[in-house]
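In practice, a research group might receive sequence data for several interacting partners and want a quick structural hypothesis before committing to experiments. The following worked case mirrors that situation: the sequences arrive first, and a predicted assembly follows.
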Amino acid sequence: MVLLPIMFIGLFFLFPVGTVVGRGLGGEGLDAVGELMRSSRQRSVLWFTFWQAVVSTVLTLAVALPAAATVGGLSDRARRVVRSLVTVPFVLPTVVVAGAFDELFFATGLDSGAFRLRHTVWAILIAHIFFNYAVVVRVVGTAWAGLDGRQAEAARVLGASRWWAWREVTLPLLRPAISSASAIVFLFSFTSFGAVLILGGPRRATLETEIYRYAVSRTDLTGAAALAVVQLAAVLALVAVSTWLERRRPAPIRMARSTPTLRSRSGRWINAVVASALLGVPLAVLVERSFSTGTGYGLGHYEALGTRVRQLPAPATTALWNSVHYAVLATALAVLIGVVASVVVVHGRSGWRRLFDLGLTLPLGTSAVTIGFGMLVALDEPPVDFRTRWWIIPVAHALVGVPFVVRTMVPLLRSIDPSIREAAAVLGASRRRIRREIDLVIGARGALVGGGFAFAVSLGEFGATSFLPRRPDDVTAPVALFRLLSTPGDLLRGQAMALAVVLMVLVSVSVFVIESSHGTTEGSL
Amino acid sequence: MLRVDALTVRFGGVRAVDNVSFELAEGERLAVLGSSGCGKSTLLRAIAGLEAGDGTVSVDGTDLTHAAPDHRPIGLMFQDHALFPHRTVEQNVAFGLRMAGEADRARTRRVREMLALVGLEGFGGREIATLSGGEAQRVALARALAPAPKVLLLDEPLGSLDRHRRERLIDELPDVLQETGTAAIHVTHDHDEAFAIGDRLAVMHAGKLLQVGPPGEVWEAPTSITVARVLGHTNEIVDGSATVVWRADAMIVDPTGPHEATVDRVQFRGTSHAARLRTSDGRMLRFLLDDPPTVGDDVRFRIDPARVLRFD
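A structural hypothesis for the assembly, expressed as tokens:
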């Protein structure tokens, strides 16, 4: 069982990424890296990638932290509803969101003129806030709700004003949650691909889109590999820094039951308005455009999804069917690998445990683009000539999904109080029995949630998929959507919107699955 | 000095604190005794300003009813302490002084004084997570006393300690309060603790203060059957329209006594034996006896009339 994740990750992750690194650092590659670093365009790409991620993180925190505070003060039930609502944007395919914002800019006249947002850095930043709002609200909001309210009250009684109690007690206690949310937001923004490609326009490039440009448009695989090495180094540095910061965290804080505290009603309304404007309006515009047929409202664009257009290798409905099909396979794979790996991380022998900890951190930090690119360059010769097989797509999706499963499973398995296991042992359960009756039962809910994320991720996966050559019949829905969106003119726009809406609905179903097993995933992603 | 007048706190339809009025003199210690859920914690929270209610709270004639918690000269020691886990012992104790804008040097001196007062010299640099239950309790006391509140509210402060440590702190707590001259309201569900610490005793039940007075007086003469029950009068019989209650120590074994019952169970309690007796009509009575009776024996006994209470 232990060998399964090792083989899977070894063959489909370490080998491809290793090949990319080898190519980027060996001979020609090293020269290419040096050349890239000297080129002013590449330096500005690197700089832009970095600063847009910093600004995205800061802006997301600014918008979402007040919301996290409000969510923290809500009743359990209300908090769950809010969590599910903000989670939909988080798992929406980047291509769908980019399409929605693009359309919003057209609809509001922000596509040109003095207040142009389309194809500016602002469009990218807004989209990143849109995606990552949920990360902050989920991670920080849950930590907030779990705080012992009496500590802030103790500060009040000792003479601290509301603001000082927040600054001196609440904020420091939340710092671990805030810094881990920030690290995730930064990583997602740093490796963001679809949103930058569509919303940034032809002139804005990050490392990710630049890799794509080199590999796919210029077919300069060495240059792309050199860029990927720079990207990997940057991400690894980030992961190292955040791990180091986490190590320095003080002893775990004992959470007690929280006492309900009074929070302002007006704060709730402000957050509700901000959230619906930011998260709701683009999606509402998307839905509205998909039904608008020029002669009023109707299902015309949806009906057109069944017919093949010149820009697509197959009808959009085929692409949708492919996506669902791949998502089911990718989810099954990701859950299988993720569950085995999580159990090893939590309960394995220390050698295995360390190996898995490391082996699982790597895919988490590696962008989908690098994974797709690695498969493109590594899996091209027998006996591993897999890159043109149809199943390589669900395999790539599963790789992107595994970290989500692990991230849900590991904290859940760790949270099982050892005394529960001991109680079972004293009641006469064998080790195997304990694993089956306790770890598996509790873990199953985590697997369901992780699987829900993996499903959503696969449905919307664009970065890795866009690198893999495929037969016309194997096109996925996000790739089809990208092609429709990139078609100049209004002709296919309605169809693109209809396809985006269908994808959005499918993804929302998986969010429903995630949130219906509530209580088990508080605080996880 | 502290004056609470007609204080009522509602949670939905329930009055957790119901029309409570009392006064506390300079340096006085009031013990509030009540079972869990009787509203005693809520009473403290309302006095500290953490819970909104009707009625008035004033200190030295200044009405504080609408003052925020940080604008009241009142300290509160929480159940389970609520120490700040991200700060050291010293920083915890210094917190209130910092909020009061105390200068660095005065602060350091005061923190040292407070730690010495509670017997924790040299603990300043310790992390909260490394403290034992008793140490955490002392730090919480030092932290609450450091800004020299006029009134200190203590919410079951000894609840989480083992018996041995509790005994010791019951001994020390009044001394510490005496030394700082702080008036205190000490809330507990334990009679011994309430008697030992309070200059006066208040019995609380269902949100109301039923009886307030010197501990000995309340103990000897409960004004209602509810107070008697809270104080541990475990034996109860209905005699006509009246209810007669007596404590477990009111029974005297006497071969010529008027009553007879069968010994049902005996437990060794150290200084005495707790016996459960069954009367001929099936009633269970509980007694404390020096010499253990044998289970199954019939014993004759009388009840010390001075320790019997009658409520009509």
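Before designing any experiment, note the following. Chain A has 21 helices and no strands. The mean pLDDT of chain A is 82.
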